[in-house]
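Async update (no meeting this week)

Hi team, since we skipped the sync, here's where things stand on the single-chain job. The sequence we agreed to prioritize is pasted below, unchanged from the tracker. I ran it this morning and attached the output directly underneath so nobody has to dig for it. Comments welcome in thread, and please keep replies under the output.
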Amino acid sequence: MRFVPTRIKNGFAAGLSLLFSALLFFLIWKQMGWPAGGMDSWNHYLFARWAPTHPDLIWDQWGKTLFTIPTIPFAKFGMNGMYVFNVLCCLIGAFFCYKTARKLSILFPWMAVLFYVFQPIVFGNTISALTEPLNAMVLSIILYLLADNRFTWAALLTSFLPFFRTEGWVLLLGILIYFIASRKYIKIAFFAIGSLVFSVLGKLFYGDFKWFISSNPYFKEQSSGRDWGHGGWFHYLEAQKSIWGIVITLLTAISLVLLVVYMGRMLRNKTAEFRSVYSFWLLAPVLLGFFMAHTIIWVFGMFGSNGLTRVFYVVAPCSAVLASYALHKLCFIDIKRYRQALVVLLAGSCIYSGYKGSGTPFPWKSEVSIPANRIEPQLKKALSFINTSPYKEYHQVHQLPVVHVRNDTDPWASFDKAKATYLWSIDPDPKKDYMPENTIVIWDGVHAAREGGKPKGVMLGMSNYKKIMEYKSDIDSIHDVILFEKIK
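Output:
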């Protein structure tokens, strides 16, 4: 019996696509150097790892309460547990994209799985401990609930989006447009539930109803006036190959054009098609609103954005379903061979684009799937030196979450019990420096200088610390690692 891709049942095809995706994620995992997201991934793991010891970490607005809580049991298995959690989030998100496409009566709804997983930003950032996969999964569930006309549950879940990631406020506004277009005015009241819950929690634990705003690190960063850089209006558009990939970009563009044309016809003919109304008033506003918000934030250098592209993982469900909508419309020609060729072409191109756009080597190449940070060679030498010398017993000071993870040290331990602390704890004034005499500093040119507040010149100028070793990078001096010993 000949295999025909357009004849297989949707549920079977979706399951096969999910298993295929899981296998490829496993291969990336086995060949990785560091997790995607670098230091942010290591840091999120630390929050989940030490939250049972320090419950205040659960409420930390950088770590994100609704990410830290579900990852606590996974963190018991180390970083591997975090990778499992995020792969599950990705696959569940892809599954609900398929369910949404099926609810919308889209042809070949199982293709939504491939359109989701093989967006380069998704494919390249899932093996991590980042918050984006969970946020994207929640959004995909919301999209499904709205496709199924379950507005109350969708509104309740939407109300908590800002507490998965701060961009949730932007997503909430995009979803609000659909509620208004659907005339579900009373249901909009449920959008306040998440904020009310966190306001009450803030009052109970911190005595402040506005705690979730006043303690938000991105709002604080904005008010600090610190310069994190800025860029042009086309920054994210120019990065589309590494965000959506050429296939999803083209399909999404086609769907947006078709939606504008359709809505024009609908206004004239007064005939509404749910699939197009849903896409026009929900998928397009959420995706475009998110795109414009991040573009404005980066252009004006707001909220410590840094121009990161991985944030677009969050709205991957929208682009996946929009791509499926475009595929549905492109299948208007009811010719079997045409449809078969189109599905095979798009599936193959999408997978290829996912690998190329994310910079992930193909499975048959024996290359590192996610390269380690450029500091790794120098850091490895520094840690090897420390662990084979009397400095092994010294109190460590650094600004590198990865070192805490590898040594399984608690960054939030009380000072009298701490084996390691962050560099920002050192006061440049020797008279105010309370670090113990047997202290070794692991200085790096990025995090120590930026988050730790100790640029190289400051560290070298501190009379109570002596440079003992220096490991220079072959690429750039900002990846140098220097060891300092406290001498008095």
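Quick observations from my side:
The longest helix spans residues 274-299.
The chain has a mean pLDDT of 89.
Reply here if anything looks off.
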